[in-house]
Write a structure and sequence with these properties.
The chain is of the alpha+beta class. It is built from 14 helices and 4 strands. The model has no long low-confidence stretch (mean pLDDT 85).
Length: 315
């Protein structure tokens, strides 16, 4: 409902260019994001959280987009900062879902025997889900019953932990993200942190140095996912590389430079000439986490044996 209201307000803004409608759209997109995060926290299983997060990327993107449009209209830095916070929350949820469980158990002082029991239940759940992929007939029904029973036991155990160890729930559901100033205090003088958020058609790139903070947007080409696939295949599929070496080389050289232009060229070209940046810290998003940024090519080259324009030779 909040997203639908926000979409209406945003459409009204696009028609009138009246900032009041943009502010209303921003407010309602944030409410939609808060609702999504509330539901994510109430999912007890990490895989369910991740699946739901994948289905709700547009909520986060629209919140980021409206904040950046407000910055463009007002030049008030607070909107860029708020956009960065939304991007952090979106990217961090998957990591929290996977990591916070174990860390929260240990920090909250949960008894080792109960931690072991929870681990064993998770391991058994993974086994059952794997078996379900190839099951049919009576075996399928039996496995599904076992899985439902196991999920109920896991839920009951976590409910018990919540009552016995209040800090466990508090830690597991912690949504705090680092502020820009806190991050800048930890960034070395020669380093630049690049934080990505991949939208449906736009890539949002947040750049942080010791003093600098900026946001760039890059339009994604229609073939972006195919470009990622070609790049990964050309440098990691050994059968393809050995069987079709020339084709693999051409595919790598083309995709490595095109991806550099999309992912790194704009933020790096905006660096202050006085900044002696020699180290990049990459916080990727989605499929970007599966590619090596250091092997991108900053300029066209004729051979993949030529290292002079590799990102890793400069940073």
């Amino acid at each position: 409902m909040d997203q639908a209201k926000a979409d209406c307000f945003y459409a009204k803004y696009q028609t009138t260019q009246d900032q009041r409608w943009l502010l209303l759209a921003e407010e309602n997109y944030l409410i939609a994001v808060d609702c999504i995060q509330y539901h994510l926290l109430n999912y007890d299983d990490a895989s369910s959280q991740i699946a739901l997060r994948d289905l709700t990327d547009d909520f986060y993107e629209q919140a980021i987009q409206t904040k950046l449009e407000l910055f463009a209209k007002t030049k008030q830095r607070k909107y860029q900062v708020a956009a960065f916070k939304v991007a952090q929350e979106a990217n961090a949820f998957v990591l929290r879902a996977l990591l916070n469980e174990q860390q929260s158990l240990e920090v909250a002082g949960v008894a080792p025997a109960k931690i072991t029991s929870l681990k064993n239940q998770q391991k058994r759940k993974n086994q059952l889900e794997q078996q379900l992929q190839d099951a049919s007939g009576k075996q399928l029904d039996s496995l599904q019953t076992l899985l439902v029973d196991l999920k109920n036991k896991t839920y009951q155990l976590k409910q018990q932990l919540t009552k016995e160890y209040p800090k466990y729930t508090q830690l597991r559901n912690d949504l705090e993200v680092a502020t820009i100033s806190a991050l800048q205090e930890k960034i070395e003088e020669e380093s630049l942190l690049l934080k990505y958020f991949k939208g449906e058609k736009v890539l949002y790139i947040f750049s942080l140095g010791q003093q600098a903070f900026r946001v760039d947007t890059v339009a994604l080409p229609d073939h972006f996912d195919d470009l990622i696939f070609q790049y990964r295949r050309a440098i990691s599929d050994l059968d393809f590389i050995n069987d079709s070496t020339d084709l693999a080389e051409q595919q790598y050289l083309r995709s490595a430079h095109q991806l550099y232009q999309i992912l790194l060229k704009k933020p790096l070209s905006q660096l202050d000439k006085n900044q002696a940046i020699s180290r990049l810290k990459i916080v990727a998003d989605g499929v970007l986490a599966a590619i090596p940024f250091q092997a991108l090519q900053m300029a066209p080259v004729a051979s993949w044996e030529d290292p002079q324009h590799l990102v890793v030779t400069r940073y």
